Amino acid sequence: MHRATLAIRTSAREEMLEVTRDVRQAVAASGLRDGIVTLYVPHTTAAVTINENADPDVQHDMLAWLRRLVPPDPSFRHAEGNSDGHIKSSLVGISAQVPVVDGELLLGRWQGIYFCEFDGPRLRQLEVVIH
Amino acid sequence: MHRATLAIRTSAREEMLEVTRDVRQAVAASGLRDGIVTLYVPHTTAAVTINENADPDVQHDMLAWLRRLVPPDPSFRHAEGNSDGHIKSSLVGISAQVPVVDGELLLGRWQGIYFCEFDGPRLRQLEVVIH
Amino acid sequence: MHRATLAIRTSAREEMLEVTRDVRQAVAASGLRDGIVTLYVPHTTAAVTINENADPDVQHDMLAWLRRLVPPDPSFRHAEGNSDGHIKSSLVGISAQVPVVDGELLLGRWQGIYFCEFDGPRLRQLEVVIH
């Protein structure tokens, strides 16, 4: 098992940051030829997802839609005021897997890996485990 | 690590296609007795999920509900007009795992594996990695 | 590969039950030092997620929000009346992964593992596979 921890500086309350290149570098550094990369977010108001990386409007539409889906709500009890971020984290999910074949991430042609910030800006981490 | 790529022909814009039998065959062909099957969708407007396979009305209700949750929206910027499909892909997710015990998928009694199409019809792929 | 099956008794129709301690015990019993824990729910109206365990209001807010997002709907066809539970199961997801490093779950400071009941009360299972 190989492991890398990516440090991620987010710059807005809600943001999708592409980390495909960093994950690819961690896989190359591991020397693994065939296996699985597990991406893990050790936070409760962030997530990881894989989606289109050709048109930034896709990320814009997704974040705007999530903001409308889970607005701040006066009925939320959690006193920190970021229940919407916790909910988005569980909806999008904090772990994802990508197969590795011949040393390369088996991403589809239009896929990129995104760290999703839902209560930033903050300094975050993404665990990359290659096995 | 064993790997199979399933070719999937979808026939509607939105569809849930059961692939349990194909995944089971890939596991049998691998000869693996104990491990994990990772299912991976290399597309950005499709997903994979595991849910009830006894009553097709469950799939009907899920697709109809998702259509109401993420309707086409004039405020979406992505010019291809399929932002709803990208959003559903990240909500449902593009990877899933099932344990393998004694050569069998550890599915619950009512569980089936579904490829979810959100911008079809198209020819799609599902990666099945057994490790 | 090591495997443990947790028996979980839920006590309400919708509930988030923390199982972090049980998963931690299963990892300790396995003797594994470095690897991945895969959590798998063999049910179609339940899920597993990882989220904040410091303030129970987070779970309250999440369950209340999900109830408003997926209310019982007369247009649902599935005759058992629990289509909302099936939908929540696929939204939150039935599998999750946590890395194990030096024999410890690599959970973030505020993270706990939750079994999510969406059609209880019932006797449920959670599969814990350590590899």
Care to describe what's here?
3 copies of one chain form a homotrimer. The first copy, chain A, has 131 residues and is of the alpha+beta class. Chain A has a single domain (2-130), classed as Jelly Rolls. Helix content of chain A is 27%, strand content 37%. Chain A contains 3 helices and 8 strands. Chain A has helices at residues 20-30, 56-69, 83-92; strands at 2-9, 15-18, 35-40, 46-52, 95-101, 104-105, 111-117, 123-130. In chain A, strands 1-8-3-5-6 form a 5-stranded antiparallel sheet, covered by helices on one side. A 3-stranded antiparallel sheet of chain A has the order 2-7-4, sandwiched between helices. In chain A, strand 5 (95-101) and strand 6 (104-105) form a beta hairpin. The longest helix of chain A has 14 residues, at 56-69. Chains B and C meet through strand 4, helix 2 and strand 5 of B and helix 3 of C.
